[in-house]
Amino acid sequence: GSLACSSLLRSLVVAHVFDHLCLTTSTSAAYMGTRAILPLLALLEVGLAFGGLSGDQGWHAVPLFRKPAVSTGQLELVEEGLNVLRAQTEPFAIVSAVGPTRTGKSSILGRAFFRGEHENIFEVGSGVTSHTGGVWIASQPVEVKVADGSTLRVLFIDTEGFSGVGGITSKTYEANLFGLVYLLSSVVIFNTMFPVDASTVASLNAHASHALSMLQALTDSGQLVQKAKPRLVWSIQSFNIYNLHNSGMAATDLLAALRNASRASGAGIAVLGGEAASSSTWLVERLFEQQELVTVRRPHASDEVVANLAKYNSTILSADYLHDADQVRAAAMHDLKAVHRCKEAGTVLTLSECTPQPLVGTDFVAQVSLWLKHGYILDRSDLELDTADEAETLNRLRERNRKWFDEQCATLNEELRTKFYWYREESADNAKLRDEAVAAVDKMMKGFHGAALSRLVESGVFWKFPGKGAMLVEAQADQAMQRCKETLDGTRRHMEGWTASHRATKATPAQELFKKLEAEAPKPSGGLSYKLVAEDSSCFSNAGGAGDIHRLHLGNGMTLEACAEAVSKKCECGRGFEHDKGNDGYCGCGMAGTPNTDCTESDDDFSYGSARYIMFNPACLNQQSEARKRALEQANAAAGGEDGGGALAAAVVKDYDAPKKRRQVCFDVYD
Hints:
By secondary structure, the protein is an alpha+beta fold. 47% of the residues lie in helices and 13% in strands. The strands form 3 sheets. Strands 1, 2, 3, 4, 5, 6, 7, 8 and 9 form a 9-stranded mixed sheet that branches. A hairpin with a 5-residue loop joins strand 5 (142-145) and strand 6. The protein starts with a helix and ends with a helix. The model is unreliable at 1-56, 125-131, 263-269, 274-280 and 642-671 (pLDDT under 50).
């Protein structure tokens, strides 16, 4: 229905819920009930405030700017996105999200402004590489109520992350991207990850300097930007709110502290009509009308859910995260202004200095085209010319390229290893997903040529030695692709072997290996009796989410033999132990008398390079048996005695004589 009807319905529902809580519960109980109902109210509030984004309205994202085939840092307009702007015949505002790659920009836009059916309107990545490329805009505006009670249309923009891996980017490209988004937007959401410090502020200030450079370039070409300054909402994701509470600070205090930690940047301030910056100037303050910091807590306790947010709807996410997403929305919608041109002369004025004349879509597209044409800027770090001779310059280029190729390959290698772990269980779907992961990293590896040449074009070396520089990069790219292919093939074979051995390990539990060791003892050689259970596996323990409390750390710098010797002399160890040669010879064991006695409490973990063993150690059998007995007694006592605790004790401490159960959580619980 209409916004008026939606507003009335929202008021009635909220009033009814809180009246019910207040009338039927005590104050403390009402508080807890309110906490419990907040996620439902948040979902209702979003759905009703935006008119209930229904499927027949066809919301999706379309490209507005794209990178050229060979990157020069110059963005290219895309007609599909321009048509969205041209279709706006009434006043409209633009809210944009920018920031470092893989920090959740696309997710926070979806969960804050499109929660429900369209909350994944902007595609969300699940790997370690940047997912969004270029600049994307929602296909239709969202109608919202503003402070004066009128309705304003809002378009949302998502952008490619800064400092991404696996893509063709440069500092010049990122400078132009931020500058254009700054000019386009009514509100800019700058999204980063916790923790934040002075270096994060310095990065934000550096991006602000790019916007300033673009304003200067437009002024020099006679294209004055007569608009009011946009507002800035700084969203910090995965924020540990207790760190703030422990310091006795609020978000506004943190923003003030970060502002004071930033360094002065006075260059080019004259374009704003002000004096040179003082030692306490924060450039962001000169470019944005207001700045607000919003802390956003972790979406979910599970790493798998966080890494694959697009697969999960908001109903399973943390109530704290949804509450914080609502705060991002509220901050962005506060005092929202339509895109406009100020009647007064001057560049990016304050709201008090500007008499805004709202622009319709066709006029705004014409303005954007001029900004793109005349506002192109260069990040000087991309064009620093080497003053050394030719040989030294090319040698430095060779070393920089080698390091860059190695970093790209390492990222792809980790991506492949991670995907094989995610899809380790045997099924047709998982086999297909593993094949797709291999194809994806192979495709990205084959992009080394184009990415390396683009990096060369945007460096000073190309302009000094174009022919030799290009030949060097071509040769290095061929060599790097061959090396990387060998690395990725090795990882694929390793992970295929691991998935097969992982299934075999589950089919042959440690108990069976232990019985074999027991039957073989004592060893004729008089040495220790132990067998390899699984590779890429450890004694990690996470008992009830309480942390790694059932693993004993025996030290580093050990050989396998020395590790086994240390385990045999420490009867607090159970029968399982681990050794990681690649991790400085790390040695650890499962704690006797706990579910981790055989290092199987978290036997589904993947610890690359670590090996897990089972040991038959007659010297410690009595103490291990006593530890098991104490654990059983404690479990029985915790469950209220033998009558009610037998089943619980069996679940807490695995019986040595019983085969290990498969993961059947519901059956275990109802036992």
